[in-house]
Amino acid sequence: MRDLKDSGIEWIGEIPKEWEISKIKYVGEFRNGLTYSPNDVTDKENGILVLRSSNIQNGKIDLNDNVYVSTKINSNLIVKKGDILICSCNGSKQLVGKNAIINTDKIVTFGSFMMIFRTKNPKFMYYVLNSGIFTYYLETFSTTTINQLTSKNFGNMNFPFPPLESQIKITNFLDKKCKKIDLIKDKILTQISNLKEFKKSIITKAVTKGLDKNAKFKDSGIEWIGEIPSHWKISKVKYTGEYRNGLTYSPNDMTDENNGILVLRSSNIQNGKIDLKDNVYVSTQIKSNLMIKKGDILICSRNGSKNLIGKNTIINSNITATFGAFMMIYRTKNSKFMYYVLNSDIFSYYLETFLTSTINQLTTTNFGNIKFPFPPLNEQQEIANYLDKKCEKIDEIIELKNKELEILDEYKKSLIYEYVTGKKEVK
């Protein structure tokens, strides 16, 4: 049995006698990132990579969605191998605090909504920042109007601090344990990715070829779509409904649930459905045409992460809500069929042509000019009903896989917490 002592922090309880309680500011240095304008954004050949929230995926640095800038950068804003990159500010409260260790020696900077933490034993501190300790503090820092981890709040975080020898033992142990968990997670993530691709292929076939196996076909006039049923036509989005961008509001307009109106944002779309866990409310005058209606398709039209632009969902219930300036609403007669068009390869193709290294935006002009195969109304309904059944089965499997991921994440976090607080000892 180890000798224990009271940590002085009620929710942590006892810690090993030889451990201390320290503050983040005493074990390293930290700073906020680079402020840059859209005019500074350039291509890979002419700029320096700016790490942002979207460059952290599943606790690792991910370089699939990058931004580069051509501006003068102070040396203290260049990351070093071993730095911990932290999302310090985000429209989505759930993303504040996500972090990863920098594992490259390349010349890279980080954006103003990010923070770098530099410390002697980054791996141990990485585990502290991925335990319930950090989660607890993030919940106390965040409010209904503030989604930010300030350097002051971060620096004043208390945590159990073992001797260096114990830090190394704990780190080595958790590396092995977490690697096993991450391998299982990677397999599940691959399965989910394959299921989503399978679902998309079913949707694309139905909205471009129809359901009648005996139908006659004609050339669509669009090379990458090929043939379509001969009685279908090619239309544009602007001829099938109305669409508009959302509400512009300032931080001063934000309030709590009891005094404001819900503003739907990108974070309110999760896995193709409305998710109301991460909400913002505003107390400002809102025009009637900016109020959501049942049957509207909500689309993310602008985002710092290119991968999120175009994600969409149907509003299936009567909710009192508006939508933010980085979102778009599309209102059409058969919204279910058009929802499937917007979740097919058709929409993906156009998004790739609209978005560049310097433009992360789906404009109303570009959206309205999207061409797609347009069947008669009765076939639209048949296709929508067919896809509802097909996709429901796939979505059920994906949901089960996501629950498996949640269970693994909770297990991993609790495992880390047990060891970085000294509840369990590495033998």
UniProtKB/TrEMBL annotation:
<keyword id="KW-0255">Endonuclease</keyword>
<feature type="domain" description="Type I restriction modification DNA specificity">
    <location>
        <begin position="16"/>
        <end position="192"/>
    </location>
</feature>
<protein>
    <submittedName>
        <fullName>Restriction endonuclease subunit S</fullName>
    </submittedName>
</protein>
<dbReference type="InterPro" id="IPR000055">
    <property type="entry name" value="Restrct_endonuc_typeI_TRD"/>
</dbReference>
<dbReference type="GO" id="GO:0009307">
    <property type="term" value="P:DNA restriction-modification system"/>
</dbReference>
<keyword id="KW-0540">Nuclease</keyword>
<dbReference type="Pfam" id="PF01420">
    <property type="entry name" value="Methylase_S"/>
</dbReference>
<feature type="domain" description="Type I restriction modification DNA specificity">
    <location>
        <begin position="229"/>
        <end position="406"/>
    </location>
</feature>
<dbReference type="GO" id="GO:0004519">
    <property type="term" value="F:endonuclease activity"/>
</dbReference>
<dbReference type="InterPro" id="IPR051212">
    <property type="entry name" value="Type-I_RE_S_subunit"/>
</dbReference>
<keyword id="KW-0238">DNA-binding</keyword>
<comment type="similarity">
    <text>Belongs to the type-I restriction system S methylase family.</text>
</comment>
<keyword id="KW-0378">Hydrolase</keyword>
<keyword id="KW-0680">Restriction system</keyword>
<dbReference type="InterPro" id="IPR044946">
    <property type="entry name" value="Restrct_endonuc_typeI_TRD_sf"/>
</dbReference>
<dbReference type="GO" id="GO:0003677">
    <property type="term" value="F:DNA binding"/>
</dbReference>
